[in-house]
């Protein structure tokens, strides 16, 4: 790892828009694309049922939209996604498509987000040209509860989100909305919950969720990591645009109903004040990946590494880790290493213990 590993900011941001079948992805996207700030956006759509609406969207933005129609994004067509994104970039360079500044990949409602994220991270050409801006997950305010109960994919999509958009809020009762929000906050404490009606939301709340914020021209560690959201003392605080009336509903993950899929997911943050020995940290991560890679839905972190004046950012999805990036500066006076983990069927205390061992004298 060296300064050469600093991620180039000029790569195009790519957002993954996911969410259960019929949860309002296309409605949201078609409204978003009408916002001036998102005018220069290319869209890659994975068709899977409900063709009519998606075609409507394609008609709205013919040159910037590429349709992937070979089935479910998460299984066989990873190669297609690679080819599509590569070709989109080539066409952009040749001037065959408008010079888009960001990409949104709309996945099928049944997709597991992990392979899509891995594709962006692992294909060398794509990783040179695109950077993951964030995962945006739509959750139906009326049917979301039931979908979370019944489909583990739906839980996963919500758990790994950087932004949660609660759709169809015009149809939900206040009680439905409050219950869903509390559940989502427990599942994913860090993601701001944005309320949408007929796809109307402020695009600024959904994009630029990544580590590199072009507007700030500097890494936005807080916005990306949101490590404080995992602190139990902060758990009742309002995140993002959420308004809830803290009656103690979101704090302790221990209260999870064991019969729910949610009980398989843990989202937590491990921290340490002591600078980390890079080799020991690497061993810790490598062991974790080798043993539990399938269960690491997402890891993000900022590390204070012994011998480095500035922090190192790490980001991984399951077995795949992005090359660590040495950032130009610490964002503030807080020099603690912070590692956020979203895991499935992995015991939090065990990981905490292993992480402490990395930092033990
Ligand atoms: N009342 C109401 N209806 C909505 C809202 N958002 C979406 N819908 C409707 O819900 C249905 C599904 O919306 P889509 O945008 O097609 O959902 P999707 O997630 O793209 O669906 P798939 O591509 O099939 O997974 C459509 O009939 C939309 O008009 C909303 O905020 N309020």
TrEMBL record:
<feature type="region of interest" description="Disordered">
    <location>
        <begin position="235"/>
        <end position="255"/>
    </location>
</feature>
<dbReference type="GO" id="GO:0005524">
    <property type="term" value="F:ATP binding"/>
</dbReference>
<keyword id="KW-0067">ATP-binding</keyword>
<dbReference type="Pfam" id="PF02492">
    <property type="entry name" value="cobW"/>
</dbReference>
<dbReference type="Pfam" id="PF07683">
    <property type="entry name" value="CobW_C"/>
</dbReference>
<dbReference type="GO" id="GO:0016787">
    <property type="term" value="F:hydrolase activity"/>
</dbReference>
<dbReference type="InterPro" id="IPR036627">
    <property type="entry name" value="CobW-likC_sf"/>
</dbReference>
<comment type="function">
    <text>Zinc chaperone that directly transfers zinc cofactor to target proteins, thereby activating them. Zinc is transferred from the CXCC motif in the GTPase domain to the zinc binding site in target proteins in a process requiring GTP hydrolysis.</text>
</comment>
<keyword id="KW-0378">Hydrolase</keyword>
<dbReference type="InterPro" id="IPR051316">
    <property type="entry name" value="Zinc-reg_GTPase_activator"/>
</dbReference>
<dbReference type="InterPro" id="IPR027417">
    <property type="entry name" value="P-loop_NTPase"/>
</dbReference>
<keyword id="KW-0547">Nucleotide-binding</keyword>
<feature type="domain" description="CobW C-terminal">
    <location>
        <begin position="265"/>
        <end position="359"/>
    </location>
</feature>
<keyword id="KW-0143">Chaperone</keyword>
<protein>
    <submittedName>
        <fullName>ATP-binding protein</fullName>
    </submittedName>
</protein>
<comment type="similarity">
    <text>Belongs to the SIMIBI class G3E GTPase family. ZNG1 subfamily.</text>
</comment>
<dbReference type="InterPro" id="IPR003495">
    <property type="entry name" value="CobW/HypB/UreG_nucleotide-bd"/>
</dbReference>
<dbReference type="GO" id="GO:0005737">
    <property type="term" value="C:cytoplasm"/>
</dbReference>
<dbReference type="InterPro" id="IPR011629">
    <property type="entry name" value="CobW-like_C"/>
</dbReference>
């Amino acid at each position: 790892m060296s300064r050469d590993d600093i991620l180039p900011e000029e790569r195009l941001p790519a957002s993954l828009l996911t969410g259960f079948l019929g949860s309002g992805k296309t409605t949201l996207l078609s409204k978003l694309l009408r916002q001036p700030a998102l005018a220069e956006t290319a869209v890659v759509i994975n068709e899977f049922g409900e063709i009519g609406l998606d075609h409507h969207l394609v008609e709205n933005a013919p040159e910037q939209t590429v349709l992937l129609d070979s089935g479910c994004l998460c299984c066989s067509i990873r190669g297609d996604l690679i080819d599509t994104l590569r070709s989109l970039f080539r066409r952009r360079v040749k001037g065959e498509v408008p010079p888009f500044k960001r990409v949104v990949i709309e996945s099928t409602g049944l997709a597991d987000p992990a392979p899509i994220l891995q594709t962006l991270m692992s294909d060398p050409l794509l990783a040179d040209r695109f950077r993951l801006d964030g995962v945006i997950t739509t959750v139906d305010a009326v049917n979301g509860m039931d979908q979370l109960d019944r489909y583990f994919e739906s839980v996963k999509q919500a758990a790994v989100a950087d932004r949660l958009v609660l759709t169809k809020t015009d149809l939900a009762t206040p009680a439905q909305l409050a219950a869903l929000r509390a559940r989502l906050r427990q599942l994913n404490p860090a993601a701001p919950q944005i309320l949408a009606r007929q796809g109307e939301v402020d695009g600024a709340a959904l994009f630029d969720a990544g580590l590199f914020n072009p507007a700030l021209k500097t890494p936005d560690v807080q916005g990306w990591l949101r490590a404080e959201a995992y602190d139990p003392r902060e758990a009742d605080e309002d995140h993002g645009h959420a308004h809830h009336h803290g009656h103690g509903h979101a704090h302790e993950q221990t209260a999870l109903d064991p019969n729910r899929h949610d009980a398989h997911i843990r989202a937590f943050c491990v921290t340490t004040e002591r600078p980390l020995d890079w080799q020991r940290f690497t061993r810790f991560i490598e062991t974790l990946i080798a043993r539990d890679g399938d269960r690491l839905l997402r890891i993000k972190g900022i590390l204070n590494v012994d011998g480095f004046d500035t922090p190192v950012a790490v980001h991984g999805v399951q077995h795949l880790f992005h090359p660590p990036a040495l950032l130009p500066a610490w964002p503030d006076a807080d020099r603690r290493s912070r590692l956020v983990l979203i895991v499935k069927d992995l015991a939090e205390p065990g990981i905490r213990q292993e992480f402490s061992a990395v930092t033990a004298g």
